[in-house]
Amino acid sequence: MRNRIASLIVFATVAASTALAQSAPAWTPPDAATKELALSIFRQLIEINSTDSVGSVTAASKAMQQRFLDAGFPASDIFVGGPNDRKENLVVRYRGTGAHPPILFIGHEDVVEAHREDWTTDPFQFIEKDGYYYGRGTQDMKDGDAILVTTFLRFYKEGFKPDRDLILALTADEEGGQSNGVDWLLTNHPELMKAAFAFNPDGGGVDLQNGKAVSADVDASEKLYADYQLTVTNPGGHSSLPVPDNAIYHLADALQRLQNYQFPFELNAITRAYFEKLATLEPAQTAADIKAMLATSDPAAIARLSVSPEWNSVIHTTCVATRLQAGHANNALPQMAQANVNCRILPGHSREEVRQDLIRIFADAKVTVKYVDNGGGIHSGAPDSKGPPPVALQPEVMKPLEKLVAVYWPGTPVIPDMATGASDSIFTNAAGIPTYNWSAVELEVSDVRAHGKDERLPETSFYKGVQFWYDYLHMITKGD
Hints:
- It is a single chain.
- By secondary structure, this protein is α/β, with parallel strands linked by helices.
- It has 2 domains: 12-222 and 389-478, Aminopeptidase (3-Layer(aba) Sandwich), CATH 3.40.630; 224-379, 2-Layer Sandwich (Alpha-Beta Plaits).
- Helix content is 35%, strand content 21%.
- The chain has a 6-stranded mixed sheet with strand order 1-2-6-3-7-18, with helices on both faces.
- A hairpin with a 2-residue loop joins strand 8 (205-209) and strand 9.
- Helix 13 (395-408) crosses helix 15 (459-478).
- Residues 2-24 have low confidence and may be disordered.
């Protein structure tokens, strides 16, 4: 995910009431053989560099392909392919009875860049230390890839026959690059991806506060990602002859107007359900503000709630400057000034709509606004397609999930929410495959290191996820 936002909300009353219930584990860890298998897969994936710059997603796909072949999966049920020799995706079909339509699981194998000099450890060496697994991708999201591969292999060894086919797609370029694997597969091999619904472990999960589970979040909607290039040009000249028509000043004024602007307040079915749940958990004043926002869109309540960066991003489209470039010499007036503005757009709105909004906000003919696509291409216009609507919370997905969360994290509320980052679910949802982002991984909200230095995952969290997916898939494919 481009930016996995962990919940920063403390559900104090829930944590206090469930502390006793969580004092003893209510789940059974996987057996030693399963742990060994999962760990070996996790280690192998982490130690394959799959960055866009110098890495190979193909190497990861073929390593997992070999594991499935070695386990006895028919070669005809395994597909490896992509647009080039570094960006080949893996699709594996686990055959069921066919009583119901398939379930799709998607997970990206690529990771963001990581430099050895920035880390305490080698980011592409799997390190076990102090109860954690370190390495690039341990949180985002080779943990999820390893868990799903382990689950498929475990089922196959046991001869488990689900009531439907299970499809696993491990793909390229979610974090960047020009060859997004989910998009490529849906475009070139849609028959491989056809499913009733999908799961994406690149989001959602269980938030911990000081070791206590406070929420189990299921992303059933997400914002639309977009970058825009702002450019101001000027003839320039000698810096000893300053003029008010300075490219940098124009750009700075435009960015100041953006900083002071707030996009309109808006809720959808998922974010409304999210806040309705929060209204039962938050302290009195915050709960009152949430209720006022839900009932009457009260501006004062919205303003108070918007102080929280997380909540602000849930109820507004957000745009922020992320990069600047200007000038060509210290003793010359700038001939060009540029900035990148990154936007996360609420569902139901398009990238072109927001580009036009930016032009109106800047209100300066000197500032041109162009769209930057995922491959870095610059365009005078942006796509008109709107972000897909929220996913319906299907009982066959949510009821077993809530039942099992109560076993693994007693007393923890399951809260549907909207991801304020972005993931590959944008493609599957647009293709008509309702997709739920759920990782079954628990993380301290203060220790989210995805995309950052010394990325790590607690050992217990990993094995809890391994067992959860095994139990959950049994439940939803057998009707337990």
